[in-house]
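During the reporting period the student researcher (J.K.) took over the structure-prediction task from the postdoctoral fellow and processed the backlog of single-chain submissions. One of the processed entries is reproduced below for the supervisory committee.
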Amino acid sequence: MQSYESIFWGMAIVVLLALAGGALMGRLARVTHSLAGVAAQSLVVLALVAYLAADAGAGGMVALLAIAAAMFSLVIGTAAALLARRVLRERRACID
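J.K. obtained the following structure tokens:
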């Protein structure tokens, strides 16, 4: 039961970081910069999860966990970045 709980909390942290990172990347000037930032963040998550999972002795699950974490980060971060851009654009339109 301990390993499933660790995976749950690890993925919850990945989702939290993806939301926060996506919201920050959404403030960049261009959409391409925002999406490149989210992609870079996902690569960092991939490497970090692969390292931590290998260090914890996950065995054959290392690649699966790392790819799943990177995909979570990429999808959720992209959605957060695009939503942040839309909110900021609408706020600017209301001010004008």
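The committee noted the following: The chain has a mean pLDDT of 90.
J.K. will present the remaining backlog at the next meeting.
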